[in-house]
Amino acid sequence: MTMPDTSGIRIGVSACLLGHRTRYDGEHARDVVVADILAERYELVPVCPEDELGMGTPRETVDLWGGTTAPRMLGTHTRTDWTDRMNTWAAGCCDELEAAGLSGYVFKSRSPSCGVVDVKLHQEDGTVRREGRGLFAMEIARRFPDLPVAEETDLQDPESREAFLARVETYHRTRA
Ligand code: SF4
Q: pTM for the full model?
């Protein structure tokens, strides 16, 4: 079998999926598909918004509060408001990623920073809506609306994975 020429294709990834110990508890969320299969075929660009923003690792967990378009990011216990700092950092990071020329992005699911779908949105009445998107993932979508994105959970099935990677390679060729 001839492997496709994927040299020069860059994919952004949530750093914890590559095995970086950047999670709130100092642990990683290494994903075999990302860290082994994708890393072998592409150049992966790891980013951890919460760590790189300076929230510290380990750190207090954060939650999203409010509606889908502009939720607030608050510390779970202290209610420290990280929203503006995260949004400002995300905008600057997107400038750097634009220069890096990404052709796709794989995000950690369910994260208030990185999750793409079904992230918890807490409501003041005590209810939780699973309709949110992480603040960093939201900025990526705003800045690069056509960029192929997936969560690691989308890539476990080989067919879905290859379909996503085909979109990444098409995006790369189109940009070139
Ligand atoms: S999910 Fe995102 S913010 Fe959380 S540890 Fe992984 S890369 Fe960092």
A: 0.96
